[in-house]
Design goal:
By secondary structure, this protein is an alpha/beta fold. The protein is built from 5 helices and 9 strands. Keywords: Disulfide bond.
Amino acid sequence: MAFQISLSSPSLRAKTSSSSWSLTHPVVPNDQVRCIGDRSSRGSRSALKNVERRREIRISVRSSLDTAGPVVGQVTEVNKDTFWPLVKAASDKVVVVDMYTQWCGPCKVMSPKFQELSEKHLDVVFMKLDCNQENKPLAKELGIKVVPTFKILKDSKIVKEITGAKLDDLVAAIESVKSS
């Protein structure tokens, strides 16, 4: 299970992947927020209220338990552990996966366009997989040889593949799979 904490104040940003959290200091030096401990701690609520009053911060906490399935209208980052469960949870929806790396120039060009597609096609689930060392076994299983590669799945099966930064080909493939 993972938590993501997003702070709306531009000077405060915190993310954590721990399974539990609480705010230990409402405001600490250098406008940083420390998150540790048990999220059910009663002290965290009062500390949170103090932070909100002092800095007018909006905090949203999202848990993997809160979102049992993939989310439409946005791109979901997946890894070797979450990929297949989220694909299966998408059931009959079309799933488009962007396989990329951090160092790939064409991948960086396609990233905002991929995000726009996710906002346009609300009946499709969009995911992205960083083909780094940690996810290498999954990338190999999916037959990734070049990045960016886009895989389109339906009913948990790969039905189309687009290699390279070819937005028009990707859009045509998505439309084709949706209409089949």
